[in-house]
């Protein structure tokens, strides 16, 4: 750019949010997110190139207002929202709330993020869903009666009273409507009164009426004092009336930041006039598309938004088929530095030297007091919300204290002389609202509620094992102590091991269906990943014991098996535990249940091949010995054979041939030491713990809703 065309120097920067004309809300400065992509070069070879998904975005989202992030497809709206919410690991720039710079961990504790997809448990009612959210987010310091009161108020204020006891529902179960489901998702994330609320496409997939109802409730939340930022694609005219502040992006660059009513004047400063009867925002999006298709790209509009340098004018031409194309014409020359028509010096321009930017930005609408006729409510969308109402207030971590807990914290610090520590939105010290045991208890209650409402998973396993038990009891009834009886026993035991392994395969979709719920809840520290794992184990224990006991009781007496019945039951129980742990681990590392089933079937075949039934452990080639060790079918197979054949019991007394149980075990390469069979149980339980630890590590480090 020629020196004569340099823009005038920007006004001096004020501290905090004053330079944007506001004294409260979310401030972001020079947000840049760069990724490395492979692209074909001029020679056809693949080259690595840095691409900015976000580029030097600076602006603000005022407190008490609804800030909408808009732009064409691929503009970077969701990426920008993730950047503000601290969900991008390698982000350059600064994010501050009320002038205080926010770290990602502090953003988690003081914000809520409503995803585009409504990930909720389908067999919980609206009330139960919000109550479990209250248990997770409010913690044990809030009494059960206060939680119920807050949930009841939230249900009323979100317009969910008529569907209070209705199941959420899914494709197979009729439940609440799409708009109600979206409002439940919002309620789950605002139950703790967050200072920041982020929503990704909250109107996606909803009809006009439902979409307006959702945004209306979101606007009420903003009027309660929260800072609300949402992405939206094509808002209706009614929804536009509820939006207080706009941020328009294109190609990861800032095109406009200001109020909806100022879009017309923004276009006028560019030399564009909005046609009569046309929406000014849609007209700006059309202008953005025109420049994007031109040789200048959207960078010219970003430059205008940043410095006030007017973009070059475009003119439309028509091809042979009548399709319009966009070409450019030269700029008007500038006479003197900072003069001429190519710079915007209007009163409302952020580049003007006039002191307009000291004006206070406030939302134009506030909810009225509760009225029986218009069904509107007071601004306090969540009873006892800790967000400061004053727009001039400066936030810090101690602000998120209820009066009682604040006095208690002050008294404690005064008595001990200890400095204040980080406290989250309701006065809970540390990252989590509940103690560890409390988290496990709430998760267990929710798990048992879901199982009670959807008993098909465990009933189907119980039915399979019951039917298989009767089949085994009728096919191998009272086997004789001869060579054929020995073969029958071996076949029975290996089939039993396979049945117990395959019976857990239907658990593959279990975590896959819950994965996004887990990610949403743990992204804001609702509970620990380890608590989720422990609660899952405890929940499964009684059901797995019932399945093992049912099968054992059917086959043990019908086949007149030998050894200890308690060992037979314990080994089957341990087998189900290890198999269930393995399947849950597999389901945590695959993207969908189809690949999950394929992986489980493949590993089952390998474990079956190396369990010692086809080749004894001594006959397996040295290079494949490790597969015999990792096969979780080996331990129940050998343990059940030890329990059946161990001892001097004679199985064949043909003339000149005496075959005892120990002889059979030695021929199979299995130990004859009595206590060795209990070691098989311990090995199997060790594998169960190992797979659960791997499952925890995947949850803890690989299941984060964060861009890398």
UniProtKB/TrEMBL annotation:
Domain ABC transporter: residue ranges: 26-276
A GO molecular-function annotation: ABC-type transporter activity
Keywords: ATP-binding, Cell membrane, Glycoprotein, Hydrolase, Membrane, Nucleotide-binding, Translocase, Transmembrane, Transmembrane helix, Transport
Compositional bias segments (type: Polar residues): 352-363
GO biological process: response to symbiotic fungus
Signal peptide boundaries: none
GO cellular component terms listed in the entry, alphabetical order: plasma membrane
Region (Disordered) residue spans: 337-383
InterPro entries, A to Z: AAA+_ATPase, ABC2_TM, ABC_transporter-like_ATP-bd, ABC_transporter-like_CS, ABCG_transporters, P-loop_NTPase
Membrane-related topology note: Multi-pass membrane protein
Transmembrane intervals: 458-477, 489-512, 532-559, 565-586, 593-615, 678-699
Compartments where found: Cell membrane
Subunit structure as annotated in this protein's UniProt entry: Heterodimerizes with STR; the resulting transporter is located in the peri-arbuscular membrane.
Family: Belongs to the ABC transporter superfamily. ABCG family. Stunted arbuscule (STR) subfamily.
Protein name: ABC transporter G family member STR2
Native source organism of the sequence: Digitaria exilis
């Amino acid at each position: 750019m020629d020196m004569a065309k340099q823009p005038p120097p920007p006004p001096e920067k004020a501290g905090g949010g004053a330079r944007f004309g506001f004294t409260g809300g979310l401030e972001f400065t020079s947000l840049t997110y760069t990724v490395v992509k492979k692209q074909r070069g001029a020679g056809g070879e693949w080259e690595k190139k840095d691409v900015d998904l976000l580029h030097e975005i600076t602006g603000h989202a005022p407190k008490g207002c609804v800030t909408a992030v808009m732009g064409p497809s691929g503009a970077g709206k969701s990426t920008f929202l993730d950047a503000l919410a601290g969900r991008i690991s390698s982000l350059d720039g600064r994010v501050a709330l009320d002038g205080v710079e926010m770290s990602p961990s502090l953003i988690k504790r003081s914000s809520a993020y409503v995803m585009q997809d409504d990930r909720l448990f389908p067999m919980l009612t609206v009330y139960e869903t919000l109550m479990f959210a209250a248990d997770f987010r409010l913690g044990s310091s809030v009494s059960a009666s206060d939680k119920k009161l807050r949930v009841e108020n939230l249900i009323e204020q979100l317009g969910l009273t008529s569907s209070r006891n209705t199941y959420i529902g899914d494709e197979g179960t009729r439940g609440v409507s799409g708009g109600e489901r979206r409002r439940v998702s919002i309620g789950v994330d605002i139950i703790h009164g967050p200072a920041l609320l982020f929503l990704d496409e909250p109107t996606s997939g909803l009809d006009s009426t439902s979409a307006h109802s959702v945004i209306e409730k979101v606007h009420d939340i903003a009027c309660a004092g929260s800072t609300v930022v949402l992405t939206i694609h094509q808002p209706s005219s009614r929804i536009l009336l509820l939006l207080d502040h706009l941020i328009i992006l294109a190609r990861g660059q800032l095109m406009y930041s200001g109020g909806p009513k100022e879009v017309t004047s923004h276009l006028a400063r560019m030399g564009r006039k909005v046609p009569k009867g046309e929406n000014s925002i849609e007209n700006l999006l059309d202008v953005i598309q025109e420049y994007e298709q031109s040789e200048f790209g959207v960078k010219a509009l970003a430059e205008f938004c940043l410095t006030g340098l007017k973009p070059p004018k475009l003119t439309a031409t028509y091809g042979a088929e009548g399709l319009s194309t966009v070409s450019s014409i030269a700029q008007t020359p500038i006479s003197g530095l900072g003069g001429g028509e190519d710079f915007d010096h209007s009163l409302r321009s952020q580049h003007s030297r006039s002191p307009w930017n000291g004006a206070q930005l406030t939302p134009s609408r506030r909810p009225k007091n509760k009225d029986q006729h218009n069904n509107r409510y007071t601004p306090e969308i969540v009873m006892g919300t800790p967000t400061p109402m004053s727009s001039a207030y400066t936030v810090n971590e101690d602000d998120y204290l209820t009066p009682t807990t604040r006095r208690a914290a002050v008294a404690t610090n005064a008595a001990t002389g200890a400095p204040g520590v980080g406290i989250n939105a309701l006065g809970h010290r540390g990252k989590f609202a509940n103690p560890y045991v409390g988290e496990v208890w709430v998760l267990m209650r929710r798990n048992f509620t879901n199982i009670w409402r959807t008993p098909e998973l465990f009933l189907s396993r119980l039915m399979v094992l019951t039917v298989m038990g009767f089949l085994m009891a009728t096919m191998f009834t009272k086997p004789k102590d001869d060579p054929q009886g020995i073969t029958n026993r071996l076949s029975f035991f290996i089939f039993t091991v396979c049945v117990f392994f395959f019976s857990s395969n239907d658990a593959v979709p279990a975590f896959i269906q819950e994965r996004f719920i887990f990610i949403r809840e743990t992204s804001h520290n609702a509970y620990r990943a380890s608590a989720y794992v422990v609660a899952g184990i405890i929940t499964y224990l009684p059901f797995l014991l019932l399945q093992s006991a049912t099968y054992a009781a059917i086959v043990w007496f019908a086949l007149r098996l030998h050894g200890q019945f308690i060992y037979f039951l314990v080994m089957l129980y341990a087998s189900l535990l290890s198999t269930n742990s393995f399947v849950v681990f597999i389901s945590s590392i695959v993207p969908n249940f189809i690949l999950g089933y394929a992986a489980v079937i493949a590993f089952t075949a390998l474990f079956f091949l190396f369990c010692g039934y086809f080749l004894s452990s001594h006959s397996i080639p040295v290079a494949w010995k490790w597969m015999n060790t990792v096969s979780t079918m080996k331990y129940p197979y050998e343990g059940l054979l030890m329990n059946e054949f161990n001892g001097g019991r004679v199985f064949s007394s043909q003339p000149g041939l005496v075959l005892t149980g120990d002889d059979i075990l030695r021929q199979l390469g299995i130990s004859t030491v009595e206590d060795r069979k209990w070691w098989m149980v311990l090995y199997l339980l060790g594998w169960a713990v190992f797979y659960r630890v791997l499952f925890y590590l995947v949850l803890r480090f690989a299941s984060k809703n964060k861009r890398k």
